[in-house]
Amino acid sequence: MSARDDILRRVRSALDGVAPVTDLPPAPRAPDRGDLVALFAERVEDYRAVVTRCAADEVAAVVADVLGAARAVVPPGLGIDVAGSVGDDGLTAAELDALDAVVTRAAVGIAETGTIVLDHRDDQGRRAITLVPDLHVCVVDAGQVVADVPDALAVLDPARPLTWISGPSATSDIELDRVEGVHGPRTLHVVLVG
Q: I want to staple 118 with a disulfide (CB 3.0 to 4.6 A). Which of 88, 155, 163, 181 is the partner?
């Protein structure tokens, strides 16, 4: 008998008569962090992103201030009037690269990780528009902020394409020199409503 066979025989013997576990234990829950919206803003800023808090009636003005003279692409269902913007009607990568910014909404914000999740509905647009322009302005309603990843997964549709954003796109080389904007927008500006 080989050592492998001997080990397997012992495992089988030890498991003889043991019923398999069919109910998984619940995922550990994050401790109560108090104000989830404040924690979300703090964690987003930890990623070198900018957060501007405002009331619902101030969103258009805040977005206009953030954009300045930048030309932005907007998804068809954004619901915010963005002066000088370009609607996305299947813009090519080259056309997107010629634009300065993108303005979207979010599907959910995760307080524990400072992550924004897009599920690419009409108010968020297709994935390409959120990856090519250098500035991403993302509107997150306070009511969309959840405590942690399990809470986010509970409200997201797994059949939809999901983009998880934790700060501006960044990478580091072997000497740990940070380079931003390699795989997506160099700047993330979150407009937190409410």
A: 163
Kindly state whether residue 89 falls inside one of the protein's structural domains: yes
Is residue 133 situated within a structural domain?
yes
* pLDDT digits 0-9 by tens, 113-148: 999 999 999 999 999 999 889 899 999 999 999 999
Domain assignment present for residue 16? The answer is: no
Domain count within the chain: 1
Summarize pLDDT for 162-191 with one digit per residue, the tens.
999 987 666 666 676 665 555 567 889 999
Please indicate, yes or no, if residue 15 is contained in any of the structural domains: no
Per the structure, the complete domain to which residue 51 belongs is given by 33-193
- 154-174 in b/e burial notation, b at 16+ Cβ within 10 A? eeeeeeeebbebbbbbbeeee
